[in-house]
Amino acid sequence: MAHPPLTLKNAALLTLPPLLWAGNAVLGRLVVDLVPPATLNFLRWLLAFFILLPLAGWVLRPGSGLWPHWRRFAVLGLLGVGLYNTLQYLALHTSTPVNVTLVASSMPLWMLALGRLFFNAPVRRPQLLGALLSMLGVTVVLARGDLANLARLQLVPGDVYILAATLAWALYSWLLARPAEPAAIRADWAALLLAQVTFGLGWSGLLAGGEWLLTDAQIRWGWPLAGALVFVACGPAVLAYRCWGLGVQRAGPALAGFFSNLTPVFAALLSTVLLGEAPRDYHALAFGLIVLSIWVSSRR
Q1: I want to staple 145 with a disulfide (CB 3.0 to 4.6 A). Which of 59, 106, 189, 282 is the partner?
Q2: Crossing angle, helix 157-176 and helix 107-118, to 10 degrees?
Q3: CA 28 from chain center: how many Å?
Q4: Under 8 Å between Cβ of 55 and 171
Q5: Is 125:300 a contact under the CB 8 Å cutoff?
Q6: Is 58 exposed, middle or buried (0-12, 13-18, 19+ CB in 10 A)?
């Protein structure tokens, strides 16, 4: 399926989600001791559900067209709401932020591979070059300007979680770009997201339930956790998913995958702000490489 050339508006739509997701990753790391990962994901989407309900509650009615297409929305809810976020939060519990970012930087390559294998999407040379430039930019951030730092990285089980999350998100994006739901739902962003969240809550609830049964899960309620939940529900969930879904529809999932690599750059910048450190030269270099990868991959 052909997509129009990248416009400034579409670029903005695809840039805001990585910024919000970077904040989500930083905040997810900060609340590690306050709430277990699957429970955090369930509470996040439960709050998002009630935010979306006044905007698109009609989609839950019997005649909305949702229920005849429940299988599609169940799959989208599993990939984009249940698995992706739970695995990401779980990775932040069991792996270092540097390793999580390194594995997640493979997103453009997975986007291209899944598109070619399962959706007959052609892979153009500019896209491959863009993928290499994008990963190079992320590598610059991870190496902190010194490639010798990469030799000290060690993979742990948590890295497997973020790899699985990356694959789930890549598949979710391709499915989202292939319309297969009623036009009325497709045309209403809140309805489209609420339909996914409705089923996603079921999946995330099962994962959270298993977490409480199989582990010594505990929640430390307080204003810090309450504030974190409000942010992750309103920003990385509702607003980011709205912009990402619209951006994927307009620009295509392959190109959107390159924008996802802005997340580690934004995360590095947010981390330096929280730590009181000024951004380094390598942050600017990495940002330039990733922006260049987006431009190269969008060339016809």
Answers
A1: 282
A2: 50
A3: 13
A4: no
A5: no
A6: middle
Q: Which residues contact 24 (CB under 8 A, 6 or more apart)?
A: 88, 232, 235, 236, 240
Alpha carbon distance 16, 237 (integer Å): 12
Rg (CA), the chain: 19
Asked if 175 and 9 count as a contact pair (C-beta separation under 8 A), the reply is no
Give φ, ψ of 96 to 5 degrees.
Answer: -75, 150
Distance between alpha carbon 248 and the CA centroid of its chain, in Å? Answer: 12
Q: Give the predicted TM-score (pTM) of the model.
A: 0.81
**CA–CA distance, 222 with 234 (Å, rounded to integer):** 19
Structure confidence by residue, pLDDT tens digits, 86-133: 998 888 877 766 667 666 767 777 888 888 888 777 777 777 787 777
Residue whose tokens read 């007959």? 120
Tokens 């009609």 belong to 58
